[in-house]
Amino acid sequence: MAKMQTLTLNREFQVWFYAPSHSQLLLRSPKRNDGEKRVDILFHGVQALDIKTTMAIVSIQEVDPTKLDSRSTIPSGFHREVKTFFLRGDDWNGYVVAYGVSKMEDDLELDDSSSFASV
Fold first, then answer.
1. Which of 4, 6, 95, 109 is the most exposed place for a label (fewest CB within 10 A)?
2. Which residues lie closer than 8 Å to 64 by C-beta, 6 or more apart?
3. Distance between CA 7 and CA 50 in Å, rounded?
4. Where does residue 5 rank: exposed (0-12), middle (13-18), buried (19+ CB within 10 A)?
């Protein structure tokens, strides 16, 4: 199966919602004054993560977990369908191990519900 294309974001995000019971993680970036829309990033089937609660994310890329640097120790023993997503920031790196990730942009306000139906 082909790896996802790199999401290039260059925005400030924060952990907006995490539901261990549904294995979902929602990262949100509010609308900006320059007319850019609100951006939600939803990880589903989350198995592990190492991220900040507030972060400037430059990009998100699906990677081979064995190719990460030694500072990013990924736990082992996950289902073979699980993917590792590398989050690169200006001054930090993190990861999310999950079944998938989706991006949604909208014109809603910061505190409005997500456009993702399940969150």
1. 109
2. 84
3. 18
4. exposed
Residue 98 has pLDDT above 90, yes or no: yes
Whether 115 has a pLDDT exceeding 80, the answer reads yes
Is 17 in contact with 119 (CB distance < 8 Å)?
Answer: yes
pLDDT in tens, 58-80: 999 999 877 666 555 666 667 67
Report whether 97 contacts 82 (CB < 8 A): yes
Whole-angstrom distance, CA of residue 81 vs CA of residue 12: 29
Domain limits, the chain: 7-106
Return the bridge partners of 104, or none.
40
> How distant, in Å, are the alpha carbons of 14, 43, 49, 76, 84 from that of 36?
17, 22, 28, 38, 28
Distance of alpha carbon 73 from the chain centroid: 18
Local structure of 27: helix, strand or coil: strand
